[in-house]
């Protein structure tokens, strides 16, 4: 099947419009600097130092001219608040300069107090609770605030169990009206804990049903049937049972309980309930598929509703029209909705109908749907246009969206694609606007629930505080003598506990100090052990040198070497019992050792000592024989194997007043080649001198917090030469 070119073009246009709309929505999410001012609603005088914040985002205050600037996005919610006026919530819809007019906070109860009415002494609880009920359907927060004030504890203020029940019952009524059944359940339960009451139990059952706790609702209502109830209460109980069974899809039990309620209502002449129950029985029969029975009861409800007020009549006509729609009796539906529209227009602004379906835009839309169901598109179009106009006037974006889309579909089906495209573009625009509005509503609902929950918690804390105060006062009189008698005992117990804690702290400190001293002593012992291992190692290496002189029959050289060696040994033995020696002595010992090694290998290397004159050698101390193993390695493993004559440099440089750098550098064959010259026996044995030196440095750093730092590196890129840098710190 081939698609005509103009149809294809229309769908391309629709797709482009949708894409363009999506692009605009993404652009709307970009931040911009929103500027505005806050002024008094009556005097237009700018207000300074007002808190202005984005919900969950930026924050600022107004300047002396009442102006502000804040980073915002389309769809954000602006909160303008101060202690001097009522908090204002402003939805950001475009990037324009805004003027926010605020009203001074007017608390009815506070004004009464200002006029001299002592509410706390003159039925204060009743006044507060009446105010809460007055604002119940107008302002949930203000209504809850009055309940809070009613429950606030005071010095000369006591609240009876009955008053407590009434307060929590009112709270439950507020929660149930504002669609918070979970909070309503909690408050109704608290109300019943104070004093049992059948009316509150009925409300609790309704809250259970609203929260979809159907079994709890049924159980509560069945328990109420066993109690002594008034006729009106019996009607309420059976009607609520019918509602609950209807919600669970049990039409038989639903009709049975509705009928029980209807019989009692007729017997007791409760006329409003008779109308409602006829309507509900009709709905239950319709739900079960018993259409004839349903129509009979709907006819009854229509006749009865006409005898009541106009609001009740139009509400019932809407329900019956919905029934005709389900049965595809569109002509009857259209007739009823036309009558409903006429009556709504006649009532005008005086109409106080809470059902959102009873609006001109909604009724026009449903009439159009009935014509569309009969494929009477030309007759549906005017009603859709009326619905769109009414919805636009009343800012009903939901109906406007549905009506515009339905209109686009009708134009498409009758082949008027230009109008279909135009209507669809309007539909996309309305969807975008509705998207922003829904986001704002979700944000406001979250804030509303959060604030209501906070106030609920405040009331619960007040209730707990009140109970605690009552218990405290009662116990204070009964236990006053006991408290006085136990005061001395408590004081001594506290003193004893404090002494025990102090003793424990002292014992822990002593233990810690002993452990620390023991660890320090162990480290000293380890240092001495390593130092005692260094001396035999050094003597063994020196005797090998003497042995080499004797081996070549150079007795004179051997005698001279022994003379210098004896001086070195005397210095070593003198320092062997010291943990630290002045740096000056270590340098003298090192110079004597290097002189001996040079005497033996004078053809292999020259040496050079350099000591910074600014170093106070007596202020710095160093463990004896710490540097000698590095010098020994430089001679024996670096310079000894070099073919040409090498150079050993030992430098002492001052870094700062507390730090000296010691550099031991040679231009020998390097560590890599030195390993190649080792015999198999030497490879198997670890260097005793270097191993002990590393252990000594590790222990010293643990005891004295990084006293010595050693790094070893190659001097030249070909891995020849070795440079040892040792950083020595003053204690």
UniProtKB/TrEMBL annotation:
Keywords recorded for this protein, A-Z: Coiled coil, Kinase, Membrane, TPR repeat, Transferase, Transmembrane, Transmembrane helix
Signal transduction histidine kinase internal region domain sequence ranges: 527-605
TM spans (from-to): 492-510
Coiled coil: 438-465
InterPro entries attached to this UniProt entry: Bact_2-comp_sensor_kinase, CarboxyPept-like_regulatory, HATPase_C_sf, Sig_transdc_His_kin_internal, TPR-like_helical_dom_sf, TPR_rpt
Start-end of each TPR repeat: 275-308, 401-434
A Pfam family this chain is assigned to: TPR_8
SUPFAM superfamilies linked to this entry: ATPase domain of HSP90 chaperone/DNA topoisomerase II/histidine kinase, Carboxypeptidase regulatory domain-like, TPR-like
Keyword GTP-binding: no
Alphabetized GO MF terms: kinase activity
Protein name, entry field: Histidine kinase
Provenance organism: Aequorivita vladivostokensis
